[in-house]
Amino acid sequence: MMIRALLICVASCLPVVTSKDIINRCVLAKVLYEEDLDGFEGYSLPDWLCLAFIESNFNISKVSENVDGSFDYGIFQINSHFWCNDYHSHSENFCHMDCQELLDPNLLPSIHCAKKIVSGSKGMRNWVGWRLHCSGRPLSYWMTGCRLG
Question: Which of 42, 83, 126, 142 is most solvent-facing, going by the fewest CB within 10 Å?
């Protein structure tokens, strides 16, 4: 009985991720395609899908705290120190937006900011996860079963 109560207590403390927070891979591919990300700055749709999976596991509402006190927001885990204003830490706010906008289910604010990031000199290398898990690897399997038309 004591173990069951402990498990219930621990489970209630875990962050809740509902299915509405997770976007389907093929749905995301279609949104990214419609927003002209296939080939944007030389990156394919599979690059973008790999990035979204590695950074957030396709979780639109993910927020992560970093050791420097900044936060990463949304499906691409865009950092508050450089790209958006979270009103908690110093921000350069290069995307000129409130970080909460990066949690919008329609993804347009996240996509527009990610385009700005990728347009810079480091491209997708701005994301450590992409460098470690996506860069230079065959990624075409990310599109398996997805229809864009």
Answer: 42
Catalytic choice (55, 92, 98, 104): 55
Separation CA 27–CA 113 (nearest Å): 20
The pLDDT of residue 40 is 98
Whether 55 is a known active-site residue: answer yes
Q: Nearest Cα to 54, choosing from 137, 140, 143, 127?
A: 127
| Residue carrying the six token digits 């865009």 | 78
Q: What is the CATH number of the domain that holds 111?
A: 1.10.530.10
- Domain of residue 92 covers 21-143
The sign of the CA dihedral 91, 94, 98, 104 is: negative
